Amino acid sequence: MKDIVMRFYDEILNQNRLEVADEIVSPAFSGGRGATGPQAIKETAHYLRAAVPDLRFDIEDVISDGDRAATRWTLRGTHKGDFFGFAPTGRPLEIRACVFFRFEDGRVSEVVPVVDVSSLFRAAA
User: Fold this and answer.
1) Residue pLDDT, tens place only, 50-95
2) Whole domain around residue 65: which residue ranges?
3) 3-16: per-residue pLDDT in tens?
4) 8 A C-beta contact, residue 55 and residue 77
5) Pairing of strands 92-104, 107-115
6) Which pTM was predicted?
């Protein structure tokens, strides 16, 4: 599962290769914004890139066990667009989070982020 998690960040989010979502995201995935399946991830990636066009996820840890995985990462980039309700600052930002993944049939079926809110507020200030 670690290889799928790394593809999720490296290919989909860092390289903006959204078509990879069709390969590694379950059609049953629910993104919380109404879209499902790979389209939910594509919409999230588009939103993030609109807010932080030069975004880069740096993965510090990936741990997997059975049908679950967890990551710890830092997102870096320049805040150029609306970012979770924060108006663009034009300044560099650095956000930290842990994200938990669940897999079904070798594909991402659930993603639960736990964002370091203090880093989000610092970035938006």
Assistant:
1) 999 999 999 999 999 999 999 999 999 999 999 888 899 999 999 9
2) 2-124
3) 999 999 999 999 99
4) yes
5) antiparallel
6) 0.91
Q: In what order do the strands lie in the sheet with 68-78?
A: 56-65, 68-78, 92-104, 107-115
Which CATH number belongs to the domain containing residue 13 in this structure?
Answer: 3.10.450.50
Contacts of 32 (CB under 8 A, 6+ apart): 40
Amino acid in the structure at residue 93: L
Tell me the DSSP string of 60-117: EEEEEETTEEEEEEEEEEE--S-BTTBPP--SEEEEEEEEEEEEETTEEEEEEEEE-H
d(CA 41, CA 17): 11
Look at the chain and report how many structural domains it folds into: 1
